[in-house]
Amino acid sequence: MASTTRRPWVVGVSGASGTPYAAAVIRALLDAGEQVDLIVSRAARLTLLDETGHPFRDAHAPEDLRRWLSQGADGRPDTFEVGDAVEGVRHWAAGDLAAGPSSGSYRTKGMLIVPASTAGVAGVALGLSKDLLQRAASVTLKERRALVVVVRETPLNGQTLRHLVTLDELGAVVLPASPAFYAGARHIQDLVDFVAGRVLDAAEVEHGLYRRWEGEIGGARNRGTAGVQAVEGTGGHGARNDMP
């Protein structure tokens, strides 16, 4: 019989600024038919409250997640249509060190830490495992699964740079949250989607979040559009509603 065991991507959200990046990544994973396990650190809950105006609570995770994913990077509610696939997201409390992702025998495709704070980077590089997010990242490394670390901090001091080099040497992909402009961004969401798209590129997950470089100077500008999503939409639960 074919195995029905879940093979999710673990998405870890740390306390760094940049929660719209995490929302864009989760929406795109669901759009691609991927399964998602979600870990939101305690510090990230404060950042979410600050950046979205809404809490993220363990007891209300499904409804809080749906509201978060429907909000645009500019703070506008109901920017995205969030479909039924979001109901399949499995949320694990950050303090639950007995959770599935804490063990290497729990099968996953890998882990995306987006955004990654410098404290989280240090904890993973040093193997501290002080919460489930760090423990899951350590498990991902030891099992030789894909780990993408989306560091969101500037400037970076020498200590953090050394931690990032350590993560690179351990096999992680260090991916700074650095939007590019060649795709013809028109809105803040386009810049967020570019970073999210690069995260999914590193994870080898198909998406249509931004227009790729094709060797034509001013190509995106000449076409009069920002990204693929702005022209075609994403279809299912990640479809973007009209934006100004």
Structure in words:
This protein has 244 residues and is an alpha/beta fold. The protein is built from nine helices and six strands; from the N terminus they run E-H-E-H-H-E-E-H-H-E-H-E-H-H-H. A six-stranded parallel sheet has the order 3-2-1-4-5-6, sandwiched between helices. Strand 1 (9-13), helix 1 (19-31) and strand 2 (36-40) form a beta-alpha-beta unit. Helix 1 (19-31) packs across helix 7, helix 4 (118-126) packs across helix 5 and helix 4 crosses helix 6 (158-169). The chain is globular.
Instruction: Quickly count the helices.
Output: 9
Care to count the β-strands?
Answer: 6
Major β-sheet strand ordering: 3-2-1-4-5-6
Structural class: alpha/beta
Could you give the distance between the termini? 50 Å
Note poorly predicted spans.
227-237
- The overall pLDDT average reads 92
Strand content: 5-15%
Q: Which range best describes the helical content: under 10%, 10-25%, 25-40%, 40-55%, 55-70% or over 70%?
A: 25-40%
Q: Sketch the major β-sheet.
A: 6 strands, parallel
* Gyration radius over CA: 17 Å
N-to-C order of helices and strands:
EHEHHEEHHEHEHHH
| Shape label | globular
